[in-house]
Amino acid sequence: MTSSATTQPLAIDGGSPVFKKTVPFMSLGLTREDIAAANEVLESGMLRAASKCAALEERFAAQTDAAHGLTCANGTCALQLAYGATIKPGDDVLVPAWTYIATASMIVAAGANPVFCDVHEDTYQIDVADAEKRITPKTTAIACTHLYGTPVDIDAVQALAKKHNLKVIYDAAQAHLATSKGKGLGAFGDVVTYSFYATKNLGTGEGGMVTTNDDEIAKTIGMLRSHGETDKYLHESIGFNYRMNDITGAIGLSKLDRLEDQTNRRREVANRFHAIIDTIDGIERPTIAEGLEPAWHLYTCRFDPGVLSGTRDEFCAALKAEGVPTAVHYPKPLTTQPAFKDVVTDHPPVSTMLCERVFCIPIHHDLSDEQADKIGEAIRKVADAKRT
Ligand SMILES: Cc1ncc(COP(=O)(O)O)c(C=O)c1O
Q: What angle do CA 288, 364, 10 make, to 5 degrees?
């Protein structure tokens, strides 16, 4: 490692840190209103899915430009319900190799075959041209994750789906209230799934939602969610119990009141990061295509080993000492997960490279401008010290 005479000593080497107290990676607190909303349900005794879940479905669907919303137990169940309504056992389903495991594992759970596609290095989103090359006569669907909260290239996905008659499932677990060309994500594809896991932008503890504009799919998902029941104790199909409960529904509704403002704050923070990181040689920021408004669940940078010495992990250790925690989403592409060893055919190169390069920096609605700027400056300080 070479440090120029002008670089400041890194905290990891005994210098003084940029933050005296570590900046929080996320902000998860419940407000008095959230707690009162949950208490109201507890006091009512109506704990099962009832008016609160119904209201959350209606409001969330409207806010994301979808016709139907169906709450469920979590984002993994949401995917299972979505696949249950769109794919059959034996189908080939295109899915990015660079996403959370559930997007692909629930394809396997549906008895179908995940076909792992590569992603773009600068946006981290599915590479639709690579996906097209992987289409087989058995390919019936494409499942895309709006990863880190940034919408995929929806026009390209929809064009591919039209050309090859594919169903489209979007995993928006990280992308609540993101928009593409001014439209909510519920406007696109056959089904969109969300997670309300505690750390998500809309976090209810556990929880999820499926949205669709297709009345038949909505009906099928409604049945699958509750044991295929069409009338009391009349089961038209095999299904599950993937229902939400009204305590969760009430917390979701209460938090939804603040989600738009909080998402806009994440966007302001992201814009501050862009401005700083664009001036730091050796660290790349995510590229956001024209017309997209991400939800910024995560802000993911890339370490360039051609410019900086050491490894991504050493860079993150130095940032941690400066008071900036980081996280790696994800340390492995899905094609190297043991769970998929029987279905993997190759290791898409960009996904394989990204696992050693990416790191996520703190982003949330409670970050002040000053904190955001200091996070950027800590990245600059470490990069300056590690530039070869
Ligand atoms: C992209 C993605 N898909 C699906 C899920 C699964 O959601 P849940 O944890 O609510 O089951 C997650 C959650 O981490 C996710 O990030």
A: 90
Domain extent for 96: 32-254
List pocket residues of ligand 1, CB cut-off 6 Å.
74-76, 99-100, 102-103, 145, 171, 173-174, 195, 197, 208
Contacts of 230 (CB under 8 A, 6+ apart): 223, 236
CA 249 to ligand 1 centroid distance, Å: 18
Question: 231 pairs with which residues across the strands?
Answer: 234
| Distance of alpha carbon 283 from alpha carbon 231, whole angstroms | 57
How many angstroms does the Cα of residue 192 sit away from the middle of ligand 1?
13
pTM value is: 0.97
Burial 64-100, CB ≥16 within 10 A → b, else e: bbbebbbbbbbbbbbbbbbbbbbbeeebbbbbbbbbb
Name the pairing type of β-strands 208-212 and 68-72.
antiparallel
CATH number at residue 70: 3.40.640.10
The pair of structure tokens assigned to 49 is 């899915």
Residue that wins the pLDDT comparison between 211 and 2: 211
What mean pLDDT is predicted for residues 236-260?
98
pLDDT band at 215 (very low <50, low <70, confident <90, very high): very high
Measure the CA–CA gap between 312 and 318, rounded to whole angstroms: 10
Q: Within a domain: residue 6?
A: no
The pLDDT value given to residue 5: 44
Same domain for 100 and 17: no
Q: Which atom of ligand 1 is nearest to the CA of 74?
A: 10
